[in-house]
## 1
Amino acid sequence: MYLSLNLEEERRNNPNYTPKIPFEHQTDAFTNLSKIFDFKEKHKSGMLVLPTGAGKTYTSVNWICRNVLPKNIKVLWLAHTSHLLEQAFEEFEKNLLEIHKREGINIRVVSSNPIHYNAADIKLTDDVVIITTQTAISNWNLKALDGNGKIRETAFEKYINHSKNTGLFLVLDEAHHAPAYGCRNLLIGGSKEKGIRDTIPNIRDTVSNSSFLGLTATPTYNDERRRGWLFEIFNTELFNKKGIIYEADKAKLTKDGILAIPEYIQKNTGEEFEVDDRTYNHLVREHKDLPEDLIDRMASDSKRNDYIVDEYIKNKNNYKKTIIFADRWFQCVYIKEKLKNKGIKKVDAIYTHVEGAANSAEQRNRRTPAENSKILQDFKENKLDVLINVRMLTEGTDVPNVNTVFITRQTTSSIMLTQMIGRALRGKKANGGKETANIVFFTDNWKRIIDFAIPENEGDKSNDEIKVKGNYPIQYIAIRLVEELSRKIDSGYIFADKDFLEQLPLGWYETEITINVEEETNTFKEFVIVYPNMQEKFEKFIKGIFNNLSSEWENENLSDEWMRPHVSSWIDCYFDKEQDDKNKTLDLDLIRIARHIAQSGKPPVFFTFEERNKHDLSQIAFDAVNMNYLTIHEMLFNEFNSPDKLWKSLYKDFHRFSSAFDAELKRAVHKIKYNSNPKISTPQPEIAERKRELTEPEKEQVFIRDRYTCLCCGKTKTQDTRARFEVDHIIPFKFGGQTTIDNSQTLCSICNQAKRVDEINFRVYKTPLSSPKDNLETFSLSNSEYIEWHLRRIINIFYHCQAASEIKLDTKLYIYKIKLYEGNNPAWLEKHKEKLIEFIHNNLGYKLLKDLTIQ
C-alpha cells in the first residue's frame, strides 16, 4: 500500500471539500496536543487516551495533517498488527486535504504482509511510514554485514537517521504495548535502574528533537514495573497527569451519547470441533489464529450457519440493524439466501476473493469494488437491515446506527475482535447512533483448550460467561474433563481410574504475556491449571526462578529452540515428567509463568476453585451403588440441573455427564469388590512437524546439492544423526534476498544461529572481505560437537566464506594444524591465535592443546 499524491491537484479536484466536524472531546485533545508539541529542539512525548469507539485514529491523524506534515516533519506510525496499519492509512487518505503549505505527500505501509511493502522498500522521500512495531524492531540496530564485511544500514535505519534533518513525529498505536522488551528498547533504549544496558541505540537518542505520541484506551497497568516503563517512554508532566496529554472520560462519552453501551451475548452453536496436534501447536504454542482449512470447514457447516440465521430471526426486533462478520464468500451467500427465504428481504453481502477458474462458481459470484460500494451505501442509507461481510468492515467503516454485530466465530486476535466490536459502539450523538449495542458471539465446543480472545468489558453490561478475569476459566476445566472422558471411551473400558476430585483443579494461575506472532504484537491472558498433586511443585518452581530469570525472558520474540533447554532443566529440577505431564502441556505452562514473571516483575496471581468440593462425582457414585436404574436417572437429572452446580458448564450436555457418572459408578463397584482402581491406557499424541521456508522438493534439491553437509562447520548427516539441517538465506530476506535455491545454503541449526542476519556465502572459498574483522567471535553453542566443527564455524564466519580447507590434530604434539583455502590471509587469524587456544582450553575442555599452526 503506497500513496503519492499531488495535493495542489487534489484541492483543485475537490473545491467543495468540507472537513469533518470533531466532537468536543476531540477538540479538547487537539488543544492539548498543540500545547505539548511545539517542535523545538527538545524531545517531547505523551499519551492520548481515548476509549474504543471514541475516534483516536481520526483525532491523531487529523491533528498530524494540520500541525506536523505542513512543517515537513517525517511521521513514523507504529502499530502492532497489519489491520491497524490499514486503518491508519485509510484515515490519512480521508484527511490529506487538511495538509496545507506543501505540494505533495508520500505515504507507505510496511509489514511482513504480502500486500504491504517490505522494509527494504522504505525511501528517504517517504513523508509517512506506517509500519508494524515488530518490523521496525527487526530492522533496527542489526549491525549486519554486507558481502564485503562492511556494516550495512537497513532502509529503516537510513530513514530514521535522515529524519535528524527534518524532525520526526512518532506515533505508537496501542501504546500500552510500549513497555514490551523490544518496543521500549527501540524507542528509548534502557537505563541502569531498570537493569538494561544504557548503551542500546534507540530512536529517542538518535533523533534528539523527536516527538512521541502514544495512543491507547488503557493507559495504566496493575503492576508498577510496566507502569514505570510506560511513563518513562511517554513522560510529559503537563496538566498534572504524568504521561497523559489528554484522557477522555468513558462514562461521560457514554452519557453524552458519543459511545454506546455494549451488551455482550454469547450463543453456543452446539457444534463440536477437534484439532490435530499440528493445528493445536499452531493455535496454542505459536499463538496463531485458526488455520484456513478449519475456517473453510466452519464456514461451510450448514447446521452451524442455520443456527446463526435462526438467532437473528428469533430476535430481529431486538437486534434490528445488524452487521454479520463471516469468513468466506460462500458463507455470506448461504446466510443471505437463508435470511431471504425466512422473510428478511432487506439483506445483502459484500466480499471479495481470488479469481476462480473460468466459468467457475467463484468467478460468477465475484464481487467488484463498485458493487460492494453500492451495497455498503444502501446499508448506510437504511435500504438494508442486515449486511454480511468477510472481515471487510473491521476498520474504516462508520455506520453509526448499527444496533448489533454478529461475530460468527472465535478468534485468537484481540485486535481483530476489538475492531469488530467497535463497528457497533457509535452512540446516539454520532448521526443516528444508539444507547446500547448488541455484541453477539457465536462459540463452539472445542475438544482441546484454545486461548481465544475475549473482550475487555471494563464494567459494561455483559453475559457472565464472557468475563474471565477473576472468574473461573470453566472452559479450560470442561475441556480437560471431556478429554479425560474421551480417554476412557477410547480405551474400550469406561472406568474411572482415580478419584474424580483429582480431575478438578485446586485453582489456577492467571498469566498475561506479550508475544510477537508473525510480526504482530498481542497480549494474551492465559491460565495455568493447578491440580492437587502439583500445587506445592508450582510454588517451589515460582520461588526458585523468581530472582534467577535472565532478562532475555522479557523478550516478546523468543524462539522455542531458545526456551526448550531452560524448560527441560526446570522440569527435571521441580517436577516428575512422567507423573506431572500427562497432558503434554507442562512445558507450555512453565513458559507462561516464566514470561509473565519476567515481563511483569511479579508472580502470577493464584485463584482458588471455590466450588471444587461441591462436585465430587466419585462420592455421588458411591452413594448410588445400591440404587435402582430409575432412581439413579432421576437423581442424576436433578444433579445436572441443580442451579448451584456447574455440571452444565463442565459437560455441556446430560449425555456426557451421565457417561462420566457411569465411569465413576463402575470404579465404585470395582473399588468395593477388589479394593483397587481399574487401569486404562492413554493414547499418545502425534508430534507436529516443523515448517520450512522452501517447499519440500526445493529443500531437498538444496540438501542434495550441498551433499547434506553444513557448509559452515562441515558436519554431515552421517557424522551427526542428531543434527538439524536447515536451509538458510545467503542474502537475508529483510535485505532483499530471495527465497530461491540459488540464494540458499545448507547449515546446521547451530551455525544458522551463529550466522544471525549477516550475508555470508559459505559456497565460496575466498573471503570477500578487504580487511580483517577487529574481533574473532567464538560460539560455544553446543557441548555435543567435535572441536573441529567448532573451529570451522569460528574460522569460516571470521573470513565470511568457507575458508578452512583442513583442520587436523597432531595427537603426538598436541597441535591443531589449520590449512586455509588460497586467497584467505593466514595473518588475519594468526593475530587471534592466543584467544582461540584459550577458548579451546576453557570452553571446549581440551586442556592438552599446546599450539595452533595456521597456513
## 2
Amino acid sequence: MSVDLRLALPTGVAWIATAILLSFPPALLPSSIVAWLIAGLAMAAAILFRTHYFSPLLTVVVVAAAAAGLVLSSAAVQNVQRNPAALREAASADRFVTAVAVTNQVAGPGIAHFSAILTSVTVGKERIDVAAPITVFAARTSYAASSVASPAEKAAQSAQQIGIGSTVHLSGTLTTAAPGDDVAFLFFASAAPRIEAGPPWFLDWANQLRVTFADAAQGLPGDGGDLLPGLAIGDTSAVSSQLDTAMKASSLSHLTAVSGANCAVVIALVMAAGGALGVGRRLRVAASLVTLLGFVVLVTPQPSVLRAAVMAALVLAAMVSGRPIRGVPVLALASLALLAVDPWLARNYGFVLSVLATGGLLLLSRPLTVLFSRWIPTALAAVIAIPLAAQLACQPVLILLNASIPLYAVPANMLAEPAAPVATVLGLVACVLLPWFPALGQVICWLAWLPSSWIAGVAHLFESLPASSIPWPAGAVGVFLAAAIIVLGLFAALGRGARAARWRRAAAFALAIALVSYLGIAGGERLRQSISRPQDWQIAACDIGQGDAVLVKSADQIALIDTGPDPVLLSQCLEILGITRINLLVLTHYDLDHVGGTSAVLGMVDRAMIGPPADFHDTRLADSVRRSGARVDQVTRGETGVLGELRWSVLWPPVRSNTVEPGNDASVTLEFAGAADCIDGCLTALFLGDLGNEPQARMLAANRLLGHVDVVKVAHHGSADQNPSVYEKITATVGVISVGAHNRYGHPTDALLNTLARVGTVAERTDKQGMILISPRPDGGMRVWSERPG
C-alpha cells in the first residue's frame, strides 16, 4: 500500500527550518522572505516547465517553501509581540515590575510554578502592552500552606486555587528565557498572585469540574487514586515522585497525563452512540465537534491533545464532504496548522513525540503486524506491533531526554495501554456526573480506579525488574546512531520483492556494522572511564542535568547532598560509583531540581536532614523518606556530626525559622572539614545549596568560615544571584557547578564565572565535563577527574 507523503515532506521541511531558526530570532523575518521568494520562483518554473519531468519536483519545492514561509512569517510576527525591547531591558536590569497576566495553568498553594500569558507590564511609571507566554515561579511561602497534609487542609488549598483563564496581578522580577524556548520570560514573583478577574464562563465550568473530580479522586486509595486525575483530565498534581519515577522507568510516562489518543476514543463513542440512536451523519459530526471542544477545554490544550483534536476535526470534515481519509496527510496538515498558529511547538518535546508516535502507528504498525503474523496469531502480532511502532518512531528523540534504550517499553505498554481509555472514559463520566449526582459519580470513580491502579501496578512491576535500560551515547551522535539503526533494521525486515533483496542484505550488513561500531565505541568509552576513574574520590558531582546531586565519601561512609530532578539519572550515577547505601542524605530545599530523584534512594538511607517545608507536598516527600526506614531531622545552624573521618557543620538556615522563607533562601548549607584523626587526606568543602545574594551575606555574617576551602559547591547552579564576599572569603581551589547543558536560565552566568576566576577558583562544570570526581593527594593537593576531559 502506497503512502501519500506529498504534504508530509513540506511539513517536515517547515518544521525543521522553524526549529533551527527559532534560536536566531533576528533571522526569522529574512528567512521567511527568502522562503516566499523560493516558492514564487519555483512556481514560475513549474508553470514554464509544466510538461517537463521536473514539474513534480518543482511542485514539492513550491509547497515546501510556502509551508516554511507561512510558519516562519508567523514566528517573526509573534516574536515582536513576545519580546518588546522595553521588557528585555527591564529583565536585563533586574528591574522590579508589576504585571497583569492570564493563567493557562492552575495556580495556588503547593504549586511552585505555572504558565500564563503576560498582557501588560508596568516598569516604574511606564506601562508596556505585550502578549508573551511566561512561566511564573511562585513565592511559595506567600500561600501559607500547611505542612500537614490533612484532608481538610487539602480541601482548603483546593478552594484557594486560581483557575485556568483567571486574570491575575503579579509583582516581582523578569528574566529573559533562552531563544527558541516556548516561553518568552521567566517571572519570579515576590508575592502571591492576586486575582483581578475570574475565568470567563466558557472556561470556568471546566475549572469547577476539575476541582470536584480531583477532590473525589483524593479519597481513592493508593497510586490508582493519584494517577486517575491525570488519566482522565490531565491533572498530575497528585502524582507522587515515586509513581512518576516508575512511569518514566517503564516508558509509561505518556499515560501520566491524558493523551491525544483519547480524543479518538471520545469521538468514536459519540459517533457510535449517535449511530445507535439513528441520528444522521451531519448531526453526529456536529455533536462530535462540540464534544471534542468541551473535552479539550476540560483536559486543557496540551500539545498532544491539540494535535489529536485538530486531526479529529479534519477527519470529521472529510466524513461530511465524502472525501477519502488518509492518515499521513491528515497528520501533516494538522501539524502544519498548529505550527502556523504556534511556531514554538516545533521545539516542544511533547508535540514532537506525539506527532512521531502517531506517524509511527500510521506507517509501521500494519507492516510490523504482517511481519510478526508469520510466527504468531495476527491479533497478538498487532498487540506487539502497535507499541513497537510508536517506540521506534520516538526513540531517536527520546535519546535527547534520556540517553538510554528502555528494554521493557513494549511489554509494559502492551499491558498498560488497553486500560488507559477505560480509565479515561470512566473518569470523564464521573467528572461530569459528580456535581449533579455525587453518589453515582463516586461509584464510577471507583470503577475508573481499577484500570488506573492496574497501570500504576504495571509501572512499578517493570521498574523493579533488573537491567531496565541500555546506556546510549548522548546528544546528536546518539540520535543519529539510533535513527540509523532503526531505519536499517526496518528496511532489512520489511523490504519486499526480488529487487529489494540485494538492498536488504546491504541494509542488514550496515546494521551489523552500526551495532558493532556502537558496541565498540560505547564499550571502549566505558572501559576508558572504568580504568581511569579514581576509586579514592572524596567528592563526586553526578551529571544529572539542571540540578544538584553531590556525594561526599569518607572511610566508606557516604553522604548525598540533594537528589537532582530525575531518579533514573541519579540511579545511573550511584550504580556507576557502586553506591548501595547512603549514611546521610541532605535535602537542602524542596525545588524539583534538588529533590526530584529522591525516590531512587528510598530504602537506602540511614539518616536524612531537611530544611523547612513550605507546603504539604514538601511534608509528603519527607514522610516518604521516613517511611522508607530513615531517620529524618529538620536541621538548623549549629548542628554538627561526623561522616567517617570528616566532621560536618550546618551553617544555615538560622534557628529562628521565621526570619527566612522556605525555599532557596533556606537551603541547608554544610561545611565539611577533616576530623582530628583524619589519616587519608581530607578535603575541606562548602555546599551552598541555592542560597542567593542576601542569604549568603547573612550566612557569612553568622558563621566563622574556614579561611580556605578546597572545594565549594557553587550556589544555585552558577546564577547571577551571588555574594562575591563569600567566594573571596573562602578562596576555594575548585568550584563545582552542577548545571544542565543548554539550560534556559543561562547558568552559569559570566558574572559568576568572572568572580571565581578573580579569586583563583577553578570552575568544574557538569554540563561540559559530565560526572566530576575530586580526590585528595598525599601532598595535600587534589586530583580532579571528569567524565569528558577537556
## 3
Amino acid sequence: MISPDIREFLKVLVAEGALALLIIYGMQIRHELRQKMWITGVALVLVAAVAVGAYFEFGWKRYGTFMNNHDFYHYYTGTKYAPEIGYYNQYAASLLADHEQNKVFDTKSSVRNLETHGYTPTREIFANQDAIKGRFTPARWEEFKKDILYFQKRVPQAKWQQMLRDKGYNGTPVWSMVTGTFTNSIRTSNDPGMSALIAADPIILAIMFLFIWWAFGPWTALFAIAFFGTNFVTDFVHIKGALFRMDWIACIVISMCLVHKKCFGLAGAVLAYAAAARIFPAVFLFGMGSLACWDCLATRKINRDYLRFFATFFITATLLTGLSYLYYGPALWHEFIVKIGVHNKDISTTRVGFKYIFLWPFESFGDKVRGFEAHQTAWWCCQGAMLFITFFAARKLKPYQALGLGFVPAFFLTAPTFYYYILLIAPLLVFLPEPKRASNVVGASLFFITSIAGYGLHMVYELNFTLCFLLSSMYGIICLYMVGVNLMPEKLIGFAKAKLPRPSGMVKHFAGIAYVALLVGLFLAYRGTPEKKEVPTPIPTEAAPTPVDPAAKTRALRESMGKSIAAPRDDAPSITLALVGDIMLSRGVSRDLEARKLDYTYPFLATAPLLQTADIAFGNLECPVSGRGEKLDKNYTFNAAPEAVEGLTFAGFDVLSLANNHTLDYGLVALDDTIRILSENEIVGIGISEKDGPQEPAILERNGIRVGFLAYVDPNSPFGDAKEFLPFEKGPVKALEASLTRDIAALNEKVDIVVVSIHWGIEYMDDPDEAQIALGQFAIDQGADIVAGHHPHVQQEPTWYKDGLIIYSMGNFVFDQRSRPKTLLSRLYTVTLTKSGPTFAQYRPLELVIKDWQPRPTGPQYIPLPKPGK
C-alpha cells in the first residue's frame, strides 16, 4: 500500500503537471496552435485520470473500507432518526444503545453535550434514559440499536470512544428530510444498499463534472477534475466516503453551468437547495445580486433572466424550508438554530476564512477570543469594505462568473472547517473557461499553486491554527485577485487582456528542465524528510542558570509579587505547596527551543517566581530526561535531553511524578538516567517500583511540617498507563485500592501531610468521570490530604472532599499540544498546609504560548478555593 508521504508526493506531481498543461494550453489557444493541441489533450486526460485516483487515495482504505465510518455514522443516524434524537441526543442515544449491546463505550466517562458543546457524564445520561428512549417506538429503538452496532463494529474501540465526543450532525432539517428518504429506506443490514449510499457522493461529483463538460467544454472539465482531485483540503479523509456530503458544492457548480447556458430559473432552484441544505451557500447570491443591480442601473429596467433566477431561488428555498417545518415540526428547526449558533461561536484550530487572518495577531488562544470580542467594530468594517469593493467588481463579469464571485463574501463572512474549501472548484470556474486572457490563466494557476504550497507547508506544520492561517492567507490572495482583476482599469493591469507570449524553443526547453528539476527536488525533499526526533540535539545554553536551593526559597519573593490572596489567619505553623500538571520537554518543545537558540529555562521564565516562592513545588514529568535508550513501539514517545533538567531546577521543582504512560518510552536505560539526573539536581522522582511493590515515597520537611508524596498511574484510565511497559521489571506504580491503602497507611506514620499524585481520567474531557471521583475519594478516605491529578491534558474542576482536596486535572503545564485550544490552558495551584492538613487553596490561571511553550499567567491574581467552613 502506498504510504501517506508518497501519496502526497503523487498529488503534488499531478497538480504541477496540470499547472504546466494549463499554461501551455493558454499559449496554444491564444496563438491558435491547434495542430499540437492533441498532445496537450492526451496529457491532460492522463493527468485527470491520475487525479481521480488521487481523490480515491490511490486505493488506500481506512479500516479496510472506502466508507468514512466516522462521518457516515453521524449523517446516517442524524437523518434517519432526526425525529427521535433531534440535534441534541445523538450521542446520548448511541451510548444507551451501546450499553444494551456490546458495552464498548466506557460508561464511567463522558460524551459531548451537543446543546452546549461541553461534556455530560454518562451517569446523567443513564439517569435520563427513559426520556431519551421514550422518543422511540420499540421497533425504532431496536432498529437504532442495530445501526449503532453496525458502525461500532467497523471501527476500533478507541475510535468509537472518540466518535461520541465529536460535534454531532450539523445538516439542516431540509437536508435531513431529503437524505432521510434514503437512510430510512436502506438498512445497515442491506450491504448492496449501503454500498449504493457510499457511491452517492462519487456519482454526484461525476454529474457535476458532466455539467461542466456540457457548459464549458472538455478542457475546462478535465482541468477542473485535475484540480478537485489534488486540492490540498481533499488530502484528508474527513468527508470522503461519506454520505451526501458533496451535494451542496455540486449544486453551486451546476447552478453556474446552468446560468452560463441561460437556464436562469433552474439555476436559482438548484442553488436554493444548496442554501437550504447548508445555509452558507446562500452567500453566493451576492455576486449575482450585484451584477443584477449594475444591469438595472445601466438599462433602467429589471432583467427577466435575473428575476427568474432570484424568484425560483426564494420560492424553492421557501418550499423546502416549509416542507421540512411541516415534516418535523418547529422543534427540530429550533434545535438546529441553537446548535449551529453554539458551533459557529467556537474558535477552532482547523477552520479557514478571513476571520482566522483577523485573529492571527492575537498571540494566544485566550487573546484571540478576547481580541475578537474587543475588535468587533474593526471586524465589521473590514467585512463591509470588502463587500462594497466586491459589489463594484461584479459589474464587469458574465453572469456565471458573478455567481462564482460569491466565493469572496463566503471567504470573508464565513469560517467553515478547512474541508469545506472543496468549494474552490466554484471560483476556479470564473477563470478556466476563457484561457485567451493572460489574467484568467494566472487566476486559474493560483488555485493549483495554493494546493502545491499546501502540501509543502504540511511537511512543516501539522493541521492546526498555523497551517489554517497560511491556507486562509493564500485563499485571501485569490479573493483579492478575483476582485482586483475585475475592479482596476485595464490600463493599470495591462495583462488583463494581454496576449500570452508565443513559446520559443529556448523557453520550452528551459521550462522543461526547470520542471524536471522541481520534481526531483520535491521528491528528494519528501524522501529526505526526517522523522520527528524524540531525542533532541543538545541545546546551546548562553548562561547556565543558578540552581535553586530549596532552603533558600523565601516568602519575600511572594510578597514582592503582591498577587496572592491571603489565606485565612492561623497561628499554627504553615507552609505553601505549589502543584502543576503535565511537563513534557521533548518533541516540539525541544525543537522550537533549539530553532530559536533558547535554553530549557525559557519555558519556565514566567512561572518560576510563582513556583520558587512556594516551600515545595510539585509537577508531573511526562517524559524521560535522558537522551539515551531504545524507543518503544508505541504511538507517541518522548525523550528529553539531559540539559532539560536545567529548566526544572531553575523553576524550583522539588518533587516530580514519574508515574505516567511515557516514563518508559525509551526503556529502563532512560528511566534510570532520569531518576539519577533528577537526584543529582536535588529533585526527587517518585511513583516507580519493581513489580508493583511498595514505592519509595518522597518525604520533605519545611518549617517543621513533614510532607510525604506518592504517585500512581490508573490502569483503568484509557492511555493512563501503557501496555508496552508490562515486560519491564520496573515501572509506574498502579493505583490499585490495595496499593493505595498499604502505601498511604505506611506513609501516614512518618509524615503530617500525604499528597497522592494520580495519572488518570479521560483525555480532553472537561469533567472527571465516575472512576476518577470514586478513586479520589477512596484515597482521601484512606488518609491522603491532597490528591493531585493529571493526564486529561485539560483542566477539570477541583473539589474539597471531607478534609481533603482533590484536583482532578491541572492541565498541561509545559506541553506542545496545539490542535485543541483547551490544551493550552492550565492552572498553577498553591495550597496552604499545617500539620493538621490543608487549610486554604488557590490557583493562578495559565495559558501556554504556541512555539514559546511558556505558560504565562492570564490574570492579575490568584483565584481562591476556600475550604468549606473556613
